[in-house]
Amino acid sequence: MEINRQQEPGTPATTMRQFEDVIRRSDGEGLRARWESGRYMQTLKRGKQLPAGLLAELSEKLDVSRSELGARMKFAARFPTEQELSVAVESCRTWSAIRRALTTTPRTRAADTRDSDVHDGQAQKHLKHATALVEEIDTAALDQRDLVLLAQLEAAIVRLKKGFQTLRQAVA
Q1: Residues 54 and 44 sit within 8 Å (Cβ to Cβ)
Q2: What per-residue confidence (pLDDT) applies to 119?
């Protein structure tokens, strides 16, 4: 993705507009563009914060919420290298999943004992459903043709475990 990052006075909105155009045009490059725009916004910080009013200005000019822009900066900070970005994108696959990972806090023992409403209900629902389906499989009925499907299932489980570990590390 080719973005002009010339640092002329008063051009953050222009540079950010280029990122925004990529995000809105493409799902494939959208995650990377969000990450790169977050990295760019970090270069605009004075100390630990953006200059006063810049976030509001960018939000208004780009028609993007302040929380979205903040999440992009958090995304870039949490996954600062290309390799970490690749793992995050491979694990999460969608911006919604990445945002959930960015806002998830590690659970304490007390939180672990609470009921499942604390956990992301949709993900838990899917995992319970998948578990029930797998448990219903009659292994005696499997044959050689099922090995390909079992390999695909195994790969999906490995991807989920890898994603879980990445997210666990990210929120630690």
Answers
A1: yes
A2: 47
Phi and psi at residue 159, in whole multiples of 5°?
-60, -40
Neighbours of 63 (CB within 10 A): 8
The torsion angles phi and psi of 54, rounded to 5 degrees, stand at -70, -40
Question: What's the pLDDT tens digit per position in 15-52?
Answer: 888 888 877 776 557 888 999 999 999 999 999 999 99
Give the amino acid at 132.
A
Backbone dihedral angles phi then psi of residue 158, each to the nearest 5 degrees: -60, -45
Q: Quote the pTM value.
A: 0.53
**SS3 string of the chain?**
CCCCCCCCCCCHHHHHHHHHHHHHHCCCCHHHHHHHHHHHHHHCCECCECCCCHHHHHHHHHCCCHHHHHHHHHHHHHCCCHHHHHHHHHHHCCHHHHHHHHHCCCCCHHHHHCCHHHCCHHHHHHHHHHHHHHHCCCHHHCCCCHHHHHHHHHHHHHHHHHHHHHHHHHHC
Stretch 130-155: mean pLDDT, rounded?
Answer: 76
Q: In the structure encoding, which two tokens stand for residue 113, read together?
A: 């004992």
Chain centroid, CA 94 distance in Å: 6
Per-residue tokens: 171: 């929120």
